[in-house]
Write a structure and sequence with these properties.
about 300 residues; about 20% strand; single chain; alpha/beta; Rossmann fold; globular; L-2-Hydroxyisocaproate Dehydrogenase, Chain A, domain 2; about 45% helix; 2 domains; six-stranded parallel sheet
Length: about 300
C-alpha cells in the first residue's frame, strides 16, 4: 500500500504549480507528463530537489511516456493552448479538443480506475471530450472551474468588506466564463448573505469582476494567463478526493436532470470524495437564477455542438 499517485498532464504553469502543491503537501507521488521533450523531466527534477528543504518524501518525476502514469488515482489534465489577449475561449475550442482527446485516451488506458480532473479551457466543453475519450462514468470526470471562480469571488468579497477570506463563502454555478452565475444570496460572510452587507450595485460589480476574472489577469500579464489560483483549485479538489473529505465544492459535472439540465457538463456544487462525485448538491433557484443557469447551459451546449 504505497502512497497515492497523481498524474498531471501538461507541465506548463498550471500543471507544474499544481504538482508542486500536491507534492509539497505530501499528498501523493506526482508524475508530470508533457509532449515537449525535457520540459517535464526538468520541472520534475527541480521539484524533487526542493523536497529536502520543504521536508516531504513524495516522489516527483517528469516524463513523455504514459506508461509511467500507470495506476494513477487521479489524473489532472491541464494541457492545451492558453488564452492570448483578445482570444475568446471558443477560439481555443477545436485545437484544445484534439489535445484533450489524445492525452485522455492515453492516460485512461494506463489508469482505468482513475478520477479525471479537467482544467483545460473551454472547461465545460473539454469535460465532454474527456468523458468520451476515457469512457469513464460521470462520477469520475470532474471539471475544475467553480472552485477557482468561487475563490476569486471570495477574495473580492473579503477585500470589499475588509474581512478574512476564511470567513467568506461564495456560491458560483454555471459554465466557466462569461455566462457563469455567481449566486450572491448564497454567498456569505460568516453565514450572513453578502446581499445584506453591501448595496446591490456593489454586489453586481463583484459578480461581474468574478465572471471576467480570467480575462482581467490575461490583460495584465499580456503573455500568459492565471496559474497560481487555478493550481490551488486543482489542489483543493485532489485533496478532497484522496482524503475522502466529502467537501462540497462547485465542479463541472455531467448533469442528468439536476437543475433541469440533461447531458451537459455545467458547474454545480457536488459532494466530492474518494469515489469522485458522490452526489450533486441540488438547491432551489429563483426564476431569475434558473434563467441565468439555463443561459449558461445553452452556451455550453453550443460549444459542444461546435466540437460535434
Amino acid at each position: 500500500m504505497g502512497r497515492n499517485k497523481v498524474t498531471v498532464i501538461g507541465a506548463g504553469n498550471v500543471g507544474a504549480t499544481a504538482a508542486q502543491r500536491i507534492a509539497e503537501a505530501g499528498l501523493a507521488d506526482v508524475v508530470l507528463v508533457d509532449i515537449v521533450d525535457g520540459l517535464p523531466q526538468g520541472k520534475g527534477l527541480d521539484l524533487a530537489e526542493a523536497a529536502p528543504v520543504v521536508g516531504h518524501d513524495a516522489r516527483v518525476i517528469g516524463t513523455n511516456d504514459y506508461a509511467d502514469t500507470a495506476g494513477s488515482d487521479v489524473i489532472v489534465v491541464t494541457s492545451g493552448l492558453a488564452r492570448q489577449p483578445g482570444m475568446s475561449r471558443d477560439d481555443l475550442l477545436i485545437k484544445n479538443a484534439g489535445i484533450v482527446r489524445a492525452v485522455v485516451s492515453s492516460a485512461a488506458e494506463h489508469s482505468p480506475d482513475a478520477i479525471l480532473v479537467i482544467v483545460t479551457n473551454p472547461l465545460d466543453a473539454m469535460c465532454h471530450v474527456a468523458m468520451a475519450a476515457s469512457g469513464f462514468p460521470r462520477e469520475r470526470v470532474l471539471g475544475m472551474a467553480g472552485v477557482l471562480d468561487s475563490a476569486r469571488f471570495r477574495s473580492f468579497i473579503a477585500d470589499e468588506l475588509g474581512v478574512s477570506v476564511e470567513d467568506t463563502h461564495a456560491f458560483v454555478l454555471g459554465g466557466h466564463g462569461d455566462t457563469m452565475v455567481p449566486l450572491s444570496r448564497y454567498s456569505t460572510v460568516a453565514g450572513v448573505p453578502i446581499t445584506e452587507l453591501m448595496t446591490a450595485d456593489r454586489v453586481s460589480a463583484l459578480e461581474q469582476r468574478t465572471a471576467n476574472g480570467g480575462a482581467e489577469i490575461v490583460a495584465l500579464l499580456k503573455t500568459g494567463s492565471a496559474f497560481y489560483a487555478p493550481a490551488a483549485g486543482v489542489f483543493e479538489m485532489v485533496e478532497a478526493i484522496l482524503l475522502d473529505r466529502k467537501r462540497v465544492l462547485p465542479c463541472a459535472v455531467l448533469l442528468q436532470g439536476e437543475f433541469g439540465t440533461h447531458d451537459l457538463f455545467v458547474g454545480v456544487p457536488i459532494v466530492i470524495g474518494r469515489a469522485g462525485m458522490e452526489r450533486v448538491f441540488e438547491i432551489a433557484l429563483t426564476a431569475d437564477e434558473q434563467a441565468a443557469f439555463d443561459r449558461s447551459a445553452a452556451a455550453v451546449k453550443e460549444l459542444v455542438g461546435v466540437i460535434g
